[in-house]
Design a protein that fits this description.
Distance between the termini of chain A: 47 Å
Radius of gyration of chain A: 17 Å
CATH superfamily of one domain in chain A: Glutaredoxin
Strand order of the largest sheet of chain A: 2-1-3-4
Low-confidence stretches of chain B: none
Structural class of chain A: alpha+beta
InterPro entries (chain A): Thioredoxin-like_sf
InterPro entries (chain B): HATPase_C_sf, HATPase_dom, His_kinase_dom, Sig_transdc_His_kin-like_C
Number of strands of chain A: 4
Protein name (chain A): NADP oxidoreductase
Helix content of chain B: 25-40%
Protein name (chain B): histidine kinase
Strand content of chain B: 25-35%
Keywords (chain B): ATP-binding, Nucleotide-binding
CATH topology of one domain in chain A: Glutaredoxin
Oligomer: heterodimer
Number of helices of chain B: 6
Largest sheet of chain B: 6 strands, mixed
Shape of chain A: globular
Distance between the termini of chain B: 22 Å
């Protein structure tokens, strides 16, 4: 049987990461990063928000886009879950509805990279949840 | 909810909203007694008796964005479908405890699903909170404690995607040795 991962290996990995990555820079400047909030209340989770969130975390890292992906509650758009709120530095936040993995991919490629809007924007005056 | 891990994620969001700093999740599988038990405990703000008496009502929520609150009701229904039950205890200023029992062998018991992914998402989305996840089966016990993880990571954040991926594999591989 292959060796099972343990916390001891985690230490090695941490040191590797520290030597090549700019982690500190990242944590010091959250304002300059693209902020993505995934709505993760009952409605969001039941509609597949977990997969979308995992996709956004993994893919933005792979594609070299510096983001902060966090969770938020229900914004009242349960009919359009999973919803995500994307805020590009210096712009107003935008909420996208019915975000599956395909839509999330479009949002990353078109909106986050090039600023082009994609379908599914929730055009209501909403308030960001704390 | 497709599986138990999503229910757990949903319920722990309540602890997050209750501003808990420690959340404990314990899953116990006992095939002999035919019990699959999920226990969740937090040290959040807790609830008054009045609120507590209403939490299992699907038309009760503390949110202002919508008028239904289905999380606990769905989990309760899911447990009762297998002949199990859900119990919740809470004390204001102390915290909340939730115990859900399923019949292990019942065909209506949802599978556990991607519990490792759920734990890692919760941990990374709430880097200031600590989580303990214990899983007992007949073959043994696995304990994942974010305090230990953070001690090792020091100033490296649990929100780093490489770390998250590693933690997910760590939990999965260890669970596979006991499930």
């Amino acid at each position: 049987m292959a060796k099972v991962k343990s916390l001891a290996d985690l230490k090695r990995m941490k040191e590797e990461l520290q030597s090549k990555m700019d982690l500190r820079e990242k944590s010091n400047d959250p304002e300059g990063l693209v902020q993505i909030k995934v709505a993760m209340a009952t409605c969001g989770i039941a509609s597949g928000a977990k997969e979308v969130m995992e996709f956004l975390i993994e893919e933005t890292a792979k594609r070299g886009i510096r983001t902060v992906v966090t969770q938020t509650g229900c914004m009242g758009y349960c009919y359009a879950e999973p919803t995500i709120e994307v805020q590009i530095p210096g712009k107003e936040p935008i909420v996208f509805g019915d975000v599956d993995i395909k839509k999330a991919d479009q949002i990353v490629e078109k909106y986050i990279k090039n600023g082009e809007l994609v379908d599914g924007i929730i055009p209501v005056n909403y308030k960001t949840l704390d | 909810m497709k599986d138990l891990s999503l229910h757990i994620m949903d319920i722990i969001q309540n602890s997050v909203r209750a501003e808990a700093s420690n959340v404990e999740l314990e899953i116990r599988e006992d095939l002999e007694k035919d019990i699959y038990s999920i226990f969740i405990k937090d040290d959040g703000c807790g609830m008054s008796d009045e609120v507590l008496s209403k939490v299992l009502d699907p038309f009760f929520t503390t949110r202002t964005t919508r008028k239904v609150g289905l999380g606990l009701s769905l989990l309760k229904q899911s447990a009762e479908q297998t002949g199990g039950k859900l119990e919740i205890h809470s004390k204001e200023g102390v915290g909340t405890e939730l115990q859900v029992l399923f019949s292990h062998k019942n065909i209506d018991r949802p599978v556990i699903g991607d519990i490792a992914g759920v734990i890692v998402l919760l941990v990374s989305a709430n880097p200031n909170m600590d989580f303990i996840y214990k899983h007992h089966t007949i073959k043994g016990e696995y304990i994942f404690d974010t305090k230990e993880v953070k001690e090792i990571l020091e100033d490296v954040s649990v929100t780093d995607p490489n770390i998250m991926q590693y933690l997910k594999e760590l939990i999965n591989e260890n669970l596979n040795t006991i499930i």
